[in-house]
Amino acid sequence: MGRPVVHWELWSKEPEKIAGFYQKVFGWEVQHIPELKYRLVNTGGTSGINGGIMTPEEGPWPGNMAFYIDVDDLDAYARKIKEAGGRMIVEKMEVPGVGQLSLFEDTDGRVLGMWKQNA
């Protein structure tokens, strides 16, 4: 089984403004979920992936966008990342009722995420 990209996020200090931009330009549907401080984005496509828009709460921010790779074991892939010279930024974080995520930095300083869907 491959390890596809399954989600992307735009990180913004003005999430409402950037959501409006993409709604106007591309017609994306954006659902604001206030209790999660998150905007879920549906691009309306029959292929590709959907994403989200948010403001990270802790700084400094490692960038302004991330995409998430589907994995079956966050801890195992965190070990592989460290062994390959990468660095974990968020080891494991629970998204209640949905799954778990981690953020890592590759050897070029690029920040990416990993996602494990709940079974």
Summarize the structure.
The chain is an alpha+beta fold and 119 residues long.
Tell me what the structure shows.
This protein is an alpha+beta fold and 119 residues long. The chain has a single domain, classed as 2,3-Dihydroxybiphenyl 1,2-Dioxygenase, domain 1 (Roll). 18% of the residues lie in helices and 42% in strands. It is built from two helices and eight strands; from the N terminus they run E-H-E-E-E-E-H-E-E-E. An eight-stranded mixed β-sheet has the order 2-3-4-1-5-8-7-6, with helices on one face. The longest helix has 12 residues. It is globular. The chain starts with a strand and ends with a strand. The mean pLDDT is 90.
- How can the largest sheet be summarized? 8 strands, mixed
Q: Termini distance? A: 17 Å
Q: Number of helical runs?
A: 2
The H-and-E topology, N to C, reads as: EHEEEEHEEE
How many structural domains does the protein architecture include? 1
Number of strands: 8
Q: State the oligomer.
A: single chain
Uncertain stretches: none
